Amino acid sequence: MVLSCLVCKLKINTADKSVSFHKFPKNENTKTKWLQVLDIADIKPSSRICSHHFKAEDFTLGTLNLKLRLKWTAIPSINLKRNLQTDLSNVQTNDVSKSSVEAKMCLEVAMEEIKEQGHKIRQLKKKVNRLESVVCDLRSLIKELKYKKFLSKSNDTLSEPSLDESGDEFNNIGEIK
């Protein structure tokens, strides 16, 4: 059995590496909120939701493996329309336009535009993930520079370590390191 996203039906084995899949929360209050926003009554234990349905601020960087982790307070809020194909197929073409051919063409154009927008969103999410990784790397570098006293803790400016005549390195307040 291949698991897929409950909302958009994206399969886990076909998703790219930038997409993560998340179980429903164990916390009953949060779980109830998820069920309400998704407009569903019950779920299976294997039900998952992919990262396409969460905002960037719903994620935090894991401390051990530096992977993005879903915050326990996160609620799905993006692209929540379930089964879009089914919902659109229930629309009678005669109600949309006088010509069924014209209505079908409009629907095809709309579906293609939705597909293109989805592709753009996925590309932007990949870019966000890469940039978040760069920010994490820069934060680590700043921390390391502060630790090695190459970066002042007070104003984040680079400082050259000073040496006395014996070659001992001094910190900014004149103490030997």
UniProtKB/TrEMBL annotation:
GO CC term, one of those recorded: nucleoplasm
Classification via Gene3D superfamilies: THAP domain
Segments for region (Disordered): 155-177
Species assigned in the record: Vespula germanica
THAP-type domain segment(s): 1-79
Record family assignment: Belongs to the THAP1 family.
Higher taxonomy: Eukaryota, Metazoa, Ecdysozoa, Arthropoda, Hexapoda
Keywords, alphabetical: Cell cycle, Coiled coil, DNA-binding, Metal-binding, Nucleus, Transcription, Transcription regulation, Zinc, Zinc-finger
Protein's name in the database: THAP-type domain-containing protein
SUPFAM superfamilies, sorted: Glucocorticoid receptor-like (DNA-binding domain)
